[in-house]
Amino acid sequence: MQLNDLRDNAGARRPRKRVGRGLGSGTGKTSARGQKGQGARAGVAVRTFEGGQMPLHRRLPRRGFKNPTRLAFAVVNLDRLQAAVDAGRLDPKAAVDAEAMITAGLIRRELDGVRVLARGELKVALTIQAAGASKQAIEAVAKAGGSLTVREPSPEAIAAKQTKSENRKKKAKGKSKSDD
Fold first, then answer.
1. 153, 72 Cβ separation under 8 angstroms
2. Was domain 74-154 assigned CATH 3.40.50.10490?
3. Which residues contact 90 (CB under 8 A, 6 or more apart)?
């Protein structure tokens, strides 16, 4: 047997049903949807409808809490920083900040800041500027002879998150008052 002799088992791949292609096809005219009614129309969403009974998603209790002002950080580990230095994408003499990490391909975007974590080992002295770092990461960078400066996320970013969540709350209150 050779690779070019391999075939699917008979009946493993069924051809696509081409509906609405004339009377002779067997699925012409009404396209196998029957006649009239909701099911014959486009955009039918009856999959979760339970016939007027209280739906399952409303019978179950809500759990948990999602903080609307939570900051999202782009995460970089020490082993990735070392790999970028070894590959020549990061200059160990220059300051390593979010922009340098983006150009080196370590992160896609800054989000609310960059957080450095301690996975792996750093062998080069780097000057890193980040919005957050674990204690182990700070110690590992200092041990390698570098420095890690932790600067808080910009007040503008925090204020923007808070105003977004306040606007959401106002909209929700406005909707509930108009429903009365």
1. no
2. no
3. 81, 84, 96, 100, 101, 104, 106, 126
Q: Say if CB 112 and CB 94 are below 8 A apart.
A: no
What 3-state DSSP class applies to 38?
Answer: helix
- Sorted by where each begins, the domain ranges of the chain are 74-154
Q: What is the pLDDT of residue 177?
A: 54
Mean pLDDT of the region 89-111: 93
Which positions ≥6 away from 158 have C-beta within 8 Å?
69, 71
Across 109-113, 121-125, 141-145, least confident range:
109-113
How large is the C-alpha radius of gyration of the chain?
29
Run of H or E including 140: helix 135-143
Residues 6+ apart with CB under 8 A from 19: 25, 27, 28, 31, 32
Using CA atoms, how far residue 154 sits from 71, 82, 129, 158, in Å, is 11, 27, 13, 7
Three-state DSSP at 64 gives coil
